[in-house]
Amino acid sequence: MPTELPSVSTLQALVCIAxxxxxxxxxxWKVRGKGRGHGGTGKDVFxxxxxxxxxxxxxxxxxxxxxxxxxxxxxxNQMLLLAWWEIAGFFGLMILAFVFVPVYYRNNCTTVTELxxxxxxxxxxxxxxxxxxxFGNIVxxxxxxxxxxxxxxxxxxxxxxxxxxxxxxxxAVSAAYTIFGGxxxxxxxxxxxxxxxxxxxxxxxxxxxxxxxFDLVTGVPAERLTMIGGDDSPIPWHTLLTGMLxxxxxxxxxxxxxxxxxxxxxxxxxxxxxxxxAAVIRILxxxxxxxxxxxxxxxxxxxxxxxxYGRLVAEVLPGWLAGAFAAMxxxxxxxxxxxxxxxxxxxxxxDFHERFVGKVADHWHLGAIVxxxxxxxxxxxxxxxxxxxxxxxxxxxxxxxxxxPILSAFxxxxxxxxxxxxxxxxxxxxxxxxxxxxxxxxxxQGVITLHYIHFMVIVLASSVIAALVCNRLLGHRSRWxxxxxxxxxxx
Length: 491
Fold this sequence. Notes:
CATH architecture of the largest domain: Up-down Bundle
Mean pLDDT: 84
Order of helices and strands: HHHHHHHHHHHHHHHHHHEHHE
Number of helices: 20
Strand content: under 5%
CATH class of the largest domain: Mainly Alpha
Shape: globular
CATH topology of the largest domain: Sodium/glucose cotransporter
Distance between the termini: 84 Å
CATH superfamily of the largest domain: Sodium/glucose cotransporter
């Protein structure tokens, strides 16, 4: 009796495993001799020793953002409108390159929170903002990345295995990169896998369009094809004029998970080249790959939500190539999780451990312990996201809990002098409180029906005002300095 040939799903799995192992081997070869034995300083672990050249800065920024949150979540909305998140991201990256990168390098920052301490002359604001970043990473970003990646792999392979199985595998590999290679290993894998992810994602766009004879219009409702969102859409057109830009400024310019990559270059110019390259990729390549497959999936399968991308990939790609793409997507999840995990460890080690516990003798050792604890917690939180109607919309809305309050601290600290740290803290807590009330009380009860992107502007503006008013009540006179002195230290 002849030996039975492997099924398509088995072939996919074998190709996926083989390529994942290959990428790990290539990454190890590239960073060998520069890992744990290179030193135990925070700069070496968290900023790759300041040695990332611009291609690796660009690759790491791109793949830290581009994970299954975007591929699964945005395509899961099955409408072109979601491309605005990526288009607007181009402007956020430009602000990072020309405004914030010089500021971070001039202040010799390892974490973005160090900048706040220097501008306000107080450690308390740094501790608070770092705590909010840690909350967002542990409770939102890390489990969401595992959930969306597990959902994609499960739907593509057509398996009945629980999501927690895939989440555990992805988390274990991701933690290994952070523990044994630090940011350098994450950046290298980001760049190598990014070439494969972007290339195959574009192939999927072409094959998806070919599957519907390049007719994206027939049989698809107009609201799924328009780029001008109505009031009941995920992105009403008028939100592009209010909160969208501020969301992008926070995410790309003041978010430790992204800016850490830009701060790991040897010079400002090298960092700017990497950020600008990432901006070009953001505007030219990312938008089509995060929306077109979802619309095609609607035409082929109907409204299937976040399962759209995985089903489409399984439909249009041959078995062996589907396995290759699964490996690339797994790599995207791994690098995103590893990058956020590395940022989380950096924030804890530099902003909390060294202040409240004691000086860190070896950041590799501490990082390993923290990485294991955070990874286990993220895996346990994966089931929380299974009831979400749309993973990407849920993430964007929850981000408001800390994005606008934190951004207000940067705006006040950079544009005003003589603002006390307690005043900035009051502004941040004010913003967190009113956005939490809006999200969990006022909006569900219909007290405030304003779109959350609009409400983010209210949170930002009121947080800035609250900080300045509190500063005056504390007996300090804040002074507007504007953009002229934004790169200099606070007086």
